Amino acid sequence: MHENCPECKQPTEIEVGFYYGTGYVSYIVTVFLSGFTFIAWWIFIGLSVDDNRILYWLAINSALVIFLQPLLMRFSRTLWLSWFVKYDPDWKEKEVNKYERIVKEQMNNW
To answer: How far apart are CA 13 and CA 1, in angstroms?
Structure first.
């Protein structure tokens, strides 16, 4: 992840350990993705105790989650950051001061 946004220069590392919460967000996103693939598998292929269809889903879902993990982590970090740093429509006219702006905005939000 960049230290600052390449577009607006907003610092992405707000404080030490800021992104620890992204593990929880990534877990939730992965659970929803797995639930979606399970329901899609159930609708299009079906489930049965007589054959190994559920094991095929498990193998395919595991491979998909492992393959998409870098994208899921980046999405989780972006989602986590968007909850704490609000969009400023006038960002081009303002200069970003790395910590003062963040602290002022957080104090105003409280």
So the answer is: 9
Q: Where does residue 63 rank: exposed (0-12), middle (13-18), buried (19+ CB within 10 A)? A: exposed
Which of 74-78, 82-86, 90-94, 101-105 shows the lowest mean pLDDT across its residues? 101-105
Whether residue 64 has pLDDT greater than 60: yes
Query: Hunting for tokens 């957080």 — which residue is that?
Result: 106
Within the chain, what is the greatest distance between any pair of CA atoms? 65
What CA–CA distances, in Å, run from 85 to 13, 39, 78, 79?
11, 34, 10, 10
Q: How many degrees, rounded to 5, is the angle at CA 20 between CA 16 and CA 25? A: 145
Which residue is it, tokens 């998409």? 68
- Domain segments of the chain as ranges: 18-109
Q: What is the pTM of this model?
A: 0.70
Q: What are phi and psi of 16, to 5 degrees?
A: -65, 130
Q: How far apart are CA 98 and CA 103, in angstroms?
A: 9
**Residue 110 C-alpha from the chain's centroid:** 24
